[in-house]
Design a protein that fits this description.
By secondary structure, this protein is of the alpha+beta class. It is about 20% helix and about 40% strand. It has three domains: about 100 residues, no CATH class; about 80 residues, Gyrase A, domain 2 (2-Layer Sandwich); about 140 residues, no CATH class. The chain has six helices and 25 strands. Helix 1 runs antiparallel to helix 5.
Amino acid sequence: MILRAVLIVFALLLALPAAAEAVRLKDLVEIDGVRGNDLVGYGIIVGLNGTGDGLRNAPFTEEIMANLLERLGANVTGEDFRPKNVAAVFVTASLPPFARAGTKIDVTVSAIGDAKSLLGGTLVMTPLNGADGLIYAVAQGTIIAGGIAAEGRAARVVQGVPTAGTIPAGARVEREVPFDFSQVSTLRLALKTPDFTTAARIERAVNGELGRRTATMIDSGTVVLDLKGQASPAHAIARIEGIEINAESRARVVVDQRSGTIVMGADVRIGRVAVAQGNLTLKIEEAPMVVQPNPFSEGETVVVPRSTAEITKDGTGLAELPAGTNLSEVVAGLNALGVAPHDMIDILKSINAAGALHAEFVIQ
């Protein structure tokens, strides 16, 4: 009867109109052309404490190590070279927009062989290539691994992911991406969450700051800026990126059935609907009884089975919710009274199937 009691209480709660939240323009949009570029490289880590690649299973590690030593003047051709303190890795990074030569960026290192841990290793100079095949940065430095591993002769324990790590400021930019931002006469603002109302508000706010007809809304996700007459594109962006916009968003309910997580927006509403939930409980108890024969008789002791079975059903009431009830209040009340998250998810799915949930329902 818990569900019925909660629904009756919250049926009297009507939702107040949710006010749009003021957000800076720079947090709502991406500027077309101002973006990062992904970099990737293939390198080797040295200095591991016996936790490197097994060269029998990862022959490419031996090959790259031999090539590196040969470039440094050491000829190991034909030698039985079997180190256990090296590991082959992929190195990834993101080249930020307007990065200049000499700028340092963070890199991520991930083992590609059968190395057990990268803890304490050092990445040897590794070139990082862009999608066009050109080298844009060079990485080198000590690895900060994200886990730890320990083992004995018959057991091994691993916490976190010791086969991946990072090098803060571990790469130096060597080549700049050719892009002359000062010569741009038109910019597009791409909304991270497309919405016609938000785009219209951005248009009005930008025109109020930079002058009429500077901004034009093209669709729900794009606002075009005509920068003719402005001092420079950089100055124009600096003037408008701090403008606060009352951002709108669609009402949405997101549920994760695996973890039982429920996330919903403040604008979620439910229509007039009646809800009932019942739980069947099956209880079986075994109480065997021992029956003994009379004294001095030839009988045998027998165990006689004795079972009791009971089925109970709770929550058979039907409760009605009026139109406009705030769903977040209802779920908060159910949660406070101990209703399991998976039961709440089933209730939400049923309300949505009935057409009474006025929101986008997303199941993960």
